[in-house]
């Protein structure tokens, strides 16, 4: 069974992002980039399924500038077998990403596509759902457990009220939530081996997809600074302040 995993290059989650001075976007100069954490979880899940003998091949796909090869190489070091880079310098939005992934799905015919539930840069939480809609594949989003049996996959989903278990016919789209697994670190020998694994490059034009943005970002600004809190001496003072200053009771 072949699995496709979508990995996005994003600003490392440890970095405190800053908007550009003209407010047109986030300043990416000299900023550490990494695989989106939910995509790391997606790779890990595919690798675990391969270790269990369920999956035979893992293909890591990334859409973005040439440097996104770095994140594909990381995915290869973590256990993916080969990579595909859809190279573009345009900032591609979720619908176009989903269309590109659909084109790759049509070429590769995987039984399952695993994506992160969201990318931590745009927080869109759209691509997996759009891909499922465009391809007609079943979808199990926010997965905290994935069990493949024959021609179906049972996905435990994290929903507001607890967990929901759905059984999907393959091929299916699965998006990962935090509790699905804890990704491993790439070992040095695997990082070296990853350099020799195959990585194909194609363009949106090759796949016949128009990636022109449909949404314009008007302004990016940091959230308002929070005011410092105060300490109160006792409950009486707290009640007094809530009543007379905050006027909430
Ligand atoms: P989003 O809908 O933007 O929050 O992204 C959800 C998931 O879609 C990510 O975790 C990735 O698995 C996938 N994805 C989004 N953008 C890209 C991209 N440029 N390249 C590869 N995968 C992507």
Describe this protein with a few key phrases.
single chain, alpha/beta, Rossmann fold, two-stranded antiparallel sheet, 6 helices, 27% helix, 27% strand, binds adenosine monophosphate
Describe the protein.
This protein is of the alpha/beta class. It has a single domain (about 1-220), classed as HUPs (Rossmann fold, 3-Layer(aba) Sandwich), CATH 3.40.50. Helix content is about 25%, strand content about 25%. It contains six helices and eleven strands. A hairpin with a 2-residue loop joins strand 7 and strand 8. Adenosine monophosphate (AMP) binds near residues 122 and 126. Adenosine monophosphate (AMP) binds near residues 7, 62, 92, 97 and 115.
Question: Proportion of β residues?
Answer: 25-35%
Task: Work out the number of β strands.
Answer: 11
Q: Pairing-aware structural class of the strands and helices?
A: alpha/beta
CATH architecture: 3-Layer(aba) Sandwich
Give the C-alpha Rg. 21 Å
Q: What low-confidence regions span 5 or more consecutive residues with pLDDT below 50?
A: none
Q: Give the distance, in angstroms, between the N- and C-terminal Cα atoms.
A: 61 Å
Strand order, biggest sheet? 9-8-7-10-6-1-4-5-11
Bound ions, cofactors and other small molecules, one mention each: adenosine monophosphate
Largest sheet: 9 strands, mixed
Task: Specify the overall morphology.
Answer: globular
- Can you give the mean pLDDT? 96
Number of discrete domains = 1
Highest-level CATH class: Alpha Beta
Number of helices, where a helix is a run of at least 4 consecutive DSSP H or I residues: 6
CATH fold type? Rossmann fold
Q: Helicity level, as a percent range?
A: 25-40%
Oligomer: single chain
Helices and strands, in N-to-C order? Answer: EEEHEHEHEHEEEEHEH
CATH homologous superfamily placement: HUPs
Function: The electron transfer flavoprotein serves as a specific electron acceptor for other dehydrogenases. It transfers the electrons to the main respiratory chain via ETF-ubiquinone oxidoreductase (ETF dehydrogenase).
InterPro entries: ETF_a/b_N, ETF_b, ETF_beta_N, Rossmann-like_a/b/a_fold
Family: Belongs to the ETF beta-subunit/FixA family.
Organism: Zhongshania aliphaticivorans
